[in-house]
């Protein structure tokens, strides 16, 4: 066995990008996305457990609109992406593991590479572990940040699976009631 095949897994170098950073100004109603492009939020509100926002997704080949809850205490963002007509939707919720800071009216999120795809009542799957490992190797996540990201992903995954593959049921069990709005009509 060589280091490249330790444990039977191919250790292929994954190209890695710096962590995606976004900001949400809850006074101005503006989100600066991971590409650095500012955009208006359709809706937003701050609660004792997080920040809800909804906005259109511009120039994406499959996604047209997103609504999300940023939950700093759990180290995650839970999103409901709506696709363009005809695009297949494979998950109900997309859970990003992320670090969040709040400075006055500005919420700042830093993606921690790990994500959980959830089809309510059917399955949950952790994805992008290759990116996570590459980011740690490249020093883009320090050991303490990597540990927090792993703990957040383990906690979220176990909670979601333990509640019948249901993100909302897991969060209700923690006393967090997410509210979702119907997406705007596609057009």
TrEMBL record:
Q: Which residues form the signal peptide?
A: none
In terms of superkingdom, the source organism counts as Bacteria
The DUF402 domain extends over 45-161
List the Gene3D superfamilies hit by this protein, alphabetically: FomD-like
Protein name, per record? DUF402 domain-containing protein
Taxonomic placement: Bacteria, Bacillati, Actinomycetota, Actinomycetes, Propionibacteriales
